[in-house]
Amino acid sequence: MFDYHMHSVVSFDGHDTPAAMLQAAAQAGLKEICFTDHIDYFANVEKQEWVFDTAVYNAAYDSLTHDAVKIRRGLEFGIKPYNAPQLREDLKRRNFDFVLGSVHFVDELDVYYPEFWGDKTVFQAERRYLEETLACVQAHEDFDVLGHLTYISKARANPAPRPVPMAEHRELIDEILRELARKGKGMEMNTSGVDRCGDFLPFEPYFRRFKELGGEIVTVGSDAHTAGRVGQYTDRACRILKDIFGYVCTFENRRPIFHKL
Ligand SMILES: [Zn+2]
Ligand SMILES: [Zn+2]
Q: I need a surface site. Which of 8, 74, 118, 238 has the fewest CB within 10 A?
């Protein structure tokens, strides 16, 4: 019923128009969606094509309405341990309802591709990704929810995609979840992992642990880059969150709204 992570053509890698995404959301019976277009900075300042243009964003979304689907306007910011000031700057562009903070780069390398993997084992790649994620959540204050905590699972270069086993990285994962809870930040159940590595990013036990450590804010997102994936598996994700938390969150003007499931 809610999809809080999607990319239209406003994102460099989105394929469909906001209107097409919205239409798909209505057809899927979603009550509320949030567009979360990419702002991801490369270390190379000459190469910033992953950063959307504010005028394009405003033109795409400000007049978009639907009788049955509430539309929220957010972004997905590529967090790095040192770029909290950049996020603060980008938040001056306009009012956003929701800020996903996501780790896409580790040591300035895109973890989706072999450039990051090199000869790392799956375990080593997971470990480096989680270490970087911890550094990011420690350094950042201005995001609302951590996107796809176990994104490394669905990297194209991952030779053996699997849901990241909590038991193999327990202390590190606990530190991340504890830091999120301490800061009053949320965790996303990203459904795009289901087809790629067999489960949500991250999957159920992470949310149970998050709750044990004091976490309260949880969202669900498909990470759709095409209209066809809007709302995909979000009902299944909500059923799991219903069992653990009894609710799922949406955001308005950066404030969480808790919806009883
Ligand atoms: Zn992402
Ligand atoms: Zn995304």
A: 118
Reported pTM: 0.97
CB 139 within 8 A of CB 101: no
| Spatial contact of 145 and 188, defined as CB atoms under 8 Å apart | yes
By residue count, the chain amounts to 261
190 CA distance to ligand 2 middle (Å): 9
Calpha distance 248→126 (Å, rounded): 27
CA of 158 relative to ligand 2 center, distance in Å? 18
Q: Which of 182, 200, 184, 204 is CA-nearest to residue 192?
A: 200
Considering every ligand atom shown, identify the ligand nearest to the alpha carbon of residue 34 and give its number: 2
Please tell me the distance between residue 148's alpha carbon and the centre of ligand 1 in angstroms. Answer: 7
pLDDT digits (tens, 9 = 90+) for 66-105: 999 999 999 999 999 999 999 999 999 999 999 999 999 9
Structural domain count, the chain = 1
Q: The domain spanning residue 239 has which CATH number? A: 3.20.20.140
Q: At 125, phi and psi to the nearest 5?
A: -65, -45
Q: 135-150, pLDDT tens digit by residue?
A: 999 999 999 999 999 9
Count CB-CB contacts under 10 A for residue 33: 31
Closest ligand relative to 102 C-alpha: 1
Domain holding 216, by residue range, is 2-260
